[in-house]
Write a structure and sequence with these properties.
Elements lengths: L15 H5 L7 H8 L14 H10 L6 H14 L12 H13 L3 H8 L3 H4 L4 H8 L1 H12 L9 H15 L1 H16 L6 H21 L3 H15 L1 H15 L5 H14 L5 E6 L2 H11 L8 E7 L2 H14 L1 E2 L5 E2 L12 E6 L5 E8 H9 L28 H10 L5 H13 L3 E6 L7 E5 L4 H9 L6 E6 L2 E3 L10 E6 L11 H4 L3 H13 L15 E4 L8 E3 L6 E3 L11 E5 L5 E5 L3 H8 L7 E3 L5 E10 L4 H11 L3 E7 L6 E10 L5 H9 L4 E6 L1
Parallel strand pairs: 2-6, 7-11, 14-16
Antiparallel strand pairs: 1-2, 3-5, 4-5, 5-6, 7-8, 9-10, 9-11, 12-19, 13-17, 15-16, 18-20, 18-21, 19-20
Helix pairs in contact: 3-5, 4-6, 5-6, 5-11, 6-9, 8-9, 9-11, 10-11, 10-19, 10-20, 11-12, 11-13, 12-13, 12-20, 13-14, 14-16
């Protein structure tokens, strides 16, 4: 099935690419009437599923079709006499759903369950009968689909219904594949319902099922669902887009000529490739029109290049960028960095001499299958463990992405259906994932989070409710606040308080992005309306200890007799690159070259004074130690400093904040080379988790 057909009302069986494969148009009404007459003889496949069998064999030539025949016989006999609201025999619905999945390349077990997906819900067939006749796998999937079929589209019923759907999906992603195909066929035949019910179903499809289809990578279903929802919820925009496409159909389309040029370039380069023109679907045309205003001929489609190997994709890219003018801003590499829903391709755009800009997608044939069908194209993900799995047990799913695991983790703790519903929609609205690494950097130490997640989200993903006591984080080795947003590939070390009675701040809700974090924080705050029991000492003025005087250390400036001072804001030491500036009274203040004060001075037009270091190695430096609050900490830190032979010029200890204490020391070192060893010695003091220069 094409993911980008321009007519959302067209059935896949009526599309040109299927007719080119020699398939006749499938008349489901005729098949339904034939089904009322009863199944055909058991020595051959019933004619009613002949088209399903043909589509299935196109993807799986060696498939055993006997199980499909038996499933059809059971489905037809059990649904016999039932009619859809459209007036068609009910058997046409499971047939249509199964045909959709067969075109996507679903394996035999999925198609068998699809034929039977309504039997347990709507007929007298039981799960025990399904298990006895078709085995545990089919029973498991049919049971999962049955659990999500009892949908009352009232607002109160939606949250609980989709909670069940989520659990069923997590246990077997094939359940959601059938559900999406089921919804697509229902959306195609929605015209028999009242307008208000059409709108209600379309909104649920838009808010939950389309994002789920996107996340499962089933683009072929997602794009047609988008167009059908677009037609129902935005009829005026839909008609305007239809008029745009109709007007374009009567004009000269530049894309076929551009595709011919691409074929010629790749043929000359010796790269075997298929080049196709892919028309955009309605919603895509609408979005492009909103983005660009007036549309040109090349905006109504894209060029798709299919090759055999990954390396060929980059070879094609090189030829395109060599022979045409590339639009650099449009290049995206989803092969090296696949999207969260398994999608892989190279995206680029090139300008041709005629003045058109054509978007080009480059992928392998296997990537194309996955791009169209997502998890459906992966076949049976449980084949190796199916013999040992019990029907009721949750199983390890190699196709389950990180976002689905997160949803399954928090849905059990969602306090009420409304919270579940709102958070589910917010989570599905996320369109990108990041992966961060725990401090050990092992493959098992990765955390998958939505883009925009903070250290708070990482804390709850790693520690669960124990993250209530998180007081800070170190990202890529640097101490940072819990509110800091994480980027893909960051390494995170989370710092937990030793006091288990501590809890989150209400401010955390402003920075938490994942449902698990938000629900856990909200639950704790509701249970502790007065906040955590304060364990820190009452606020007091900072404790300061002052020793020797300040001065310029061994910094020398080019102004004779000038007083030299080392800046307290950046505390330069040899061999730091430094700059000096004359201040009031003729003194020269020396800063590290990257200090913010240097940039400010230069922006004011102040001229710097040359500075160099004396050969003597002694220096003065200011260090900041971050630690957990505990008795005798100041004494232990001072002792560690003294053991290194360093003089304390001054020390300041700030009042504890969320069990964290900040110490600031100005120190006189006999040798600047001893600074790294001093900082290591201070970090080794129990309770100290970071030492840095001011």
């Amino acid at each position: 099935m094409s993911a980008e057909a321009t007519n959302p009302e067209a059935r896949p069986e009526a599309r040109p690419e299927l007719r080119r494969r020699g398939r006749t148009r499938i008349d489901l009404r005729r098949l339904g009437r034939a089904a009322l007459l009863g199944p055909t003889s058991r020595d051959r496949l019933p004619d009613a599923i002949g088209h399903v069998a043909e589509a299935h064999r196109a993807h799986h030539p060696d498939a055993d079709l006997s199980i499909l025949r038996r499933a059809y016989v059971l489905a037809e006999s059990s649904h016999r006499g039932q009619m859809r609201k459209s007036g068609e025999p009910y058997i046409t619905h499971p047939l249509a759903v199964t045909l959709i999945l067969a075109e996507l390349g679903a394996e035999t077990t999925t198609l068998t369950a699809s034929l039977l997906h309504d039997t347990v819900e709507d007929t007298e067939v039981t799960l025990d009968q399904v298990r006895a006749e078709f085995g545990d796998e089919v029973c498991f999937i049919v049971d999962g689909v049955t659990k999500v079929e009892k949908i009352d589209y009232g607002a109160a019923a939606e949250p609980e219904t989709f909670r069940k759907m989520l659990v069923a999906t997590g246990n077997d992603v094939r359940v959601m594949s059938i559900k999406l195909a089921d919804r697509l066929h229902n959306m195609r035949t929605l015209g028999v319902m009242r307008p208000e019910k059409q709108a209600r179903i379309a909104k649920v499809t838009r808010d939950v099922l389309i994002p789920l289809a996107e996340r499962l990578g089933v683009q072929a279903l997602k794009t047609e669902l988008e167009d059908l929802v677009f037609a129902i919820l935005h009829p005026e925009e839909y008609e305007a887009t239809r008029a745009l496409i109709a007007a374009h159909a009567g004009e000269r389309d530049p894309l076929p000529a551009i595709a011919d040029s691409v074929r010629a370039v790749l043929r000359d380069a010796g790269i075997a490739a298929q080049v196709q023109v892919r028309p955009r679907h309605f919603v895509s045309v609408h979005r492009i029109a909103l983005k660009r205003g007036e549309l040109r001929g090349s905006d109504f489609g894209r060029i798709l290049v299919l090759v055999g190997e990954n390396a060929d994709c980059y070879a094609v890219l090189g030829e395109l960028h060599t022979c045409f003018t590339p639009v650099v801003s449009e290049f995206k590499d989803f092969i090296a960095a696949p999207k969260f829903n398994l999608y892989q391709s190279l995206h680029t755009a090139v300008a041709v001499p005629e003045g058109y800009v054509a978007e080009v997608i480059v992928r392998t044939h296997q990537m194309h299958r996955v791009a169209e069908a997502g998890v459906v194209a992966l076949g049976n993900p449980y084949a190796t463990a199916a013999a040992d799995a019990e029907c009721e047990e949750e199983r390890a799913d190699p196709t389950r992405p990180g976002w689905l695991s997160r949803l399954l983790d928090w849905q059990q703790s969602a306090p009420d259906p409304d919270t579940f519903w709102s958070v589910l929609r917010a989570e599905l609205a996320q369109d990108r994932e990041i992966t961060v690494f725990r401090e050990d950097g092992s493959a098992s130490g990765t955390i998958s989070l939505p883009a925009g997640a903070s250290c708070i989200d990482a804390a709850y993903a790693q520690y669960g409710e124990a993250a209530h006591g998180c007081i800070g984080a170190r990202v890529n080795g640097r101490l940072t606040s819990l509110a800091s947003r994480l980027s893909d590939g960051d390494t995170v070390q989370l710092l937990l308080a030793q006091d288990t009675s501590s809890g989150p701040s209400p401010d955390w809700l402003e920075h938490a992005r994942t449902p698990a974090a938000r629900i856990a924080i909200s639950s704790w705050l509701e249970a502790h309306p007065d906040g955590a029991t304060p364990t820190a000492t009452p606020a007091r003025a900072p404790l300061s200890v002052v020793g020797a005087r300040g001065g310029g250390g061994n910094a020398v400036v080019d102004l004779p007799h000038a007083t030299v001072r080392l800046a307290g804001c950046c505390t330069p030491v040899p061999p730091d690159a430094v700059a000096g500036f004359v201040v009031r009274g003729g003194a020269v203040t020396v800063h590290r070259i990257h200090c913010a004060a240097v940039a400010q001075m230069r922006s004011l037009g102040r001229t710097s004074v040359a500075v160099h270091w004396r050969a003597t190695a002694d220096c003065r430096v200011t260090l900041v130690a971050e630690s957990f609050g505990r008795p005798h900490l100041l004494a232990d830190l001072t002792e560690a400093i003294a053991r290194e032979g360093v003089e304390v010029v001054s020390a300041t200890v700030e009042p504890p904040v969320e069990q964290r204490v900040r110490h600031t020391y100005t120190l006189q070192l006999p040798d600047a080379a001893g600074l790294p060893a001093l900082m290591r010695a201070m970090r080794d003091v129990p309770g100290v988790y970071d030492v840095s220069r001011a």
